Amino acid sequence: MTGAPVFKERVERANSARAEAEPVQDWLESLSFQESSLKYIEPAPSRPSAALGLVTAVRARGRGIIILSGPSSCGKGAIASALRKTLQLPREDHISMGDALRSTVERARSDAEFRERLGETFNIWPEHLIFDPDHNDASVVTKARSYEVELLDRFGTEPSQLDWLEYCVTAGLLVPDAWSEHIIEGVIAERASQHEAVIILDGYPRTEAAARHVLALSERLHIPIIKVIHLSVSKTEMQNRALGRQRSDDTPEMLERRYQFYIDHVQPSVELLKANLGSKSVSLIDAHQPEYRNDGSLDLDQSVRNVANRVLMALGVSRHILEALGEQPTPG
After folding, report:
1. 149 vs 245, higher pLDDT
2. Which residues contact 201 (CB under 8 A, 6 or more apart)?
3. CA distance 327 to 312
4. Which residues does residue 298 pair with via DSSP β-bridges, in sequence order?
């Protein structure tokens, strides 16, 4: 199921004569405003004169999912935050798969009551050992066995399902599909039940099985997928960004594994979404658009803004609106 983003903008016509002669785009809507906050949209050859007006804000409204996909360290979290700010979405409407997994592990480690409910809620049983074929899919057991030395070294005993979840999250490995499906479905269903929400889904799906799940979930919850944003960076850029964070798990070997995972699993998941939703529902965005200050140093905030502007335009926010908001996209 697909849907188009709906944006509400505070608009005041430059004058009544122009307003009568030049109809406003049908997704622009007049709202009350404070005159001091208005910004005038200057005429530009790249847009029709009908778009002239005064714009103070853009807001996403309605119901839908914006999916952010891409390799590790491509900036999904930073772009999601920038989108949330521009589209005036509450923090809760940014759903990060990585954050959801990490919070599940952290809560299970600190909250005994929650840990006891893991099995019923997410089908993750702390008392079940990950090497036990009676309680785990054969492919999961085989994969966990390939990390047996690391697991025993880390946990000091035969690891449980919860231990395996923690290891997958910290090592950047694929979490078993059934677990990730239960976790993300619970979070999305909770947000959708509370209000009409435009949800930014960051880092899910990462496999073809997960892509099929999110398509089915979209149908079942009646939440259209607005757009799939595929953020692209080179392998070298991904490694440079990750190593710059100086996290203990960002070793060269681990980064190589993560990028190969992107090639083998994430890219095919995006292609599956494109095949089901149509090519216009997927936009490939260059996530490396650096901006430098006069002294040659990297302006990280503006670099993120450059990428976010491309995403906003892919969502249907026009260039002249971004210019009016003072968030000018770079040429190109």
Report:
1. 149
2. 65, 66, 67, 68, 95, 97, 184, 188, 214
3. 11
4. 292
Residue in the block written with tokens 């505070």:
10
Of the candidates 210, 230, 229, 208, which has an alpha carbon nearest to the alpha carbon of residue 218? 210
pLDDT tens digits, residue range 114-128?
Answer: 998 888 888 899 999
What pLDDT shows up at residue 13? 36
Beta strand 198-202 with 6-12: parallel, antiparallel or unpaired?
A: unpaired
Q: Are 272 and 208 in contact (CB under 8 A)?
A: yes
The secondary structure of the chain in percent helix, strand, coil, rounded to multiples of 5, reads 50, 15, 35
Residue found under tokens 């790249």: 46
Residue spans per domain, the chain = 1-60+319-332, 99-171
Q: What is the 3-state secondary structure (H, E, C) of 127-144?
A: CCECCCCCCCCHHHHHHH
Q: CA 241, CA 295: separation in Å to the nearest integer?
A: 21
The SS3 assignment for 199 reads: strand
Whether 227 and 315 have beta carbons less than 8 Å apart is answered as yes
Sheet holding 94-96, edge to edge: 94-96, 198-202, 64-69, 225-232, 282-286
Q: CA 292, CA 298: separation in Å to the nearest integer?
A: 5
